Amino acid sequence: MSSSDESGPRGRLLLVTAARAQARAALASAVATRLGRAVLVDGTALELAVTAGDAAGWDEPPTSEQLRMRLLRWSAALSVAETYQLEGFDAVVAEDALGDRLEDFLDLVEPEPVHVVVVADEADPATPRWGLWVEGTDVGSDVECVAEDVVAHLDESRVLTTPPA
User: Fold this and answer.
1) pTM of the model as a whole
2) Are 89 and 32 in contact (CB under 8 A)?
3) Parent domain of 135
4) pLDDT tier at 137 (50, 70, 90 boundaries)?
5) CA 130 to CA 115: how far, in whole Å?
6) At 122, is the pLDDT very low, low, confident or very high (cuts 50, 70, 90)?
7) What secondary structure letter does DSSP report for 38?
8) Fewest CB within 10 angstroms: 90, 95, 102, 121, which?
9) Is 144 contained in some domain?
10) Per the domain annotation, does 164 fall within a domain?
11) pLDDT at residue 105 above 60?
């Protein structure tokens, strides 16, 4: 019997993404607090934990090393999230996954459904209109109210990462 069978159902996976690290971290933290049994996984914090190599910065277009480091960061965030999900925690990942990177991020979690929350301010216009979009100005002025709204509309944020059979 696996540990997820012993502790109850698997927790949900939520992605909060925004152009500004502070906006996504603040909203992700406020959402996680409202979910009760949840863990916050901040991709920026994981990147800052890297002590070797050049983890900081992002060029347009990104270099192959920047892409490799971003993939490593996402994989680490999702590994931490899954560890807690298996124990019944909801995992809220605060990560930079705008534009075509959103699809890349979701490819890593396939075949699991993901609750996607996009902070719309400064969002890359190429970002698919998946999940729940919130206005960035609201996040800055009243993150608590926006978090309440996100939790109240969590079903609307659900994105399936595999097509139905």
Assistant:
1) 0.88
2) no
3) 3-159
4) low
5) 9
6) confident
7) E
8) 121
9) yes
10) no
11) yes
